[in-house]
Design brief:
By secondary structure, the protein is an alpha+beta fold. The chain is about 15% helix and about 30% strand. A 7-stranded antiparallel beta sheet has the order 1-9-5-12-4-2-3.
């Protein structure tokens, strides 16, 4: 198997310029921690919260490879407010496989939400959104994912290459153990250019302008007999309202 391509990480001082030019940017774990104003060890302390995610019971391909939790927030004027638990909804225009369903996932645990690094990370990235598209409230959906090799392969994006129907998407790699695959592919939504790379470093970040690029991750396979998993934190940022409210 060929060696995976690693992402070209953005200069932290110019990450917003990179997003404006290319529609996306990747950051190292150290740069992500610095941007959030926390230590990398503070982010790493959250990783254990992915160990007990409940199964995703809405997979229409019949798979058992995905576990997740979900929570919603509004970030406004430097404050992050947890919203009442709600279903995750996407239109069929953006998710042909799972769109049109109200999917009720188990909520993110209170201990996770109370961790200062969690709040710092979400507020930091909401600040990026305001810097890119103007200061305003940002409606955030947070998804903790574990994709494993229970079925032999696991599909991080069973819906294929897609947009999420929001303004911005952040994908944070939390852990990657005992697997191969999960190559990330980012393409212009209206153009020929694209990039492919594999996030390998825990707490590295891919941040995307969802209106300009489409993305997908290739399936994972076990790298050994014991199998493995890939943990991510996916954050979506939308102006105006949560999906389904407008």
């Amino acid at each position: 198997m060929s060696q995976p391509f690693t992402p070209t990480y953005a200069d932290p001082a110019r990450v917003l310029d990179e997003i404006r030019v290319s529609g996306y940017a990747a950051l190292t774990p150290e740069a992500l921690a610095d941007s959030a104003g926390v230590r990398l060890a503070d982010l790493q302390a959250l990783s254990a919260d992915w160990a007990d995610l409940p199964p995703d019971n809405y997979l229409r391909d019949g798979g058992r490879y995905r576990r997740r939790r979900h929570a919603c927030f509004v970030a406004d004027d430097g404050r992050l407010a947890l919203q009442p638990h709600r279903a995750h909804w996407q239109s069929l225009d953006y998710n042909a496989l799972h769109g049109g369903m109200h999917r009720w996932f188990e909520p993110v645990l209170p201990a996770t939400l109370a961790h200062p690094a969690w709040n710092a990370l979400l507020l930091s990235l909401a600040g990026w959104c305001s810097a890119l598209k103007g200061g305003q409230p940002w409606y955030i959906e947070a998804h903790q994912f574990r994709i494993d090799t229970t079925d032999g392969i696991g599909r991080p994006t069973p819906e294929g290459a897609h947009r999420d129907g929001v303004d911005f998407v952040a994908v944070v790699l939390v852990a990657r153990e005992g697997i191969k695959g999960a190559e990330t592919r980012v393409f212009e939504a209206e153009g020929p250019r694209g990039q492919r790379f594999t996030l390998l470093e825990p707490w590295s970040l891919l941040f995307m302008d969802d209106q300009r690029v489409i993305h997908e991750s290739t399936p994972i396979q076990p790298a050994g007999e014991s199998g493995g998993h890939r943990d991510t934190l996916v954050l979506t940022f939308r102006a105006g309202a949560f999906q389904g409210e407008d």
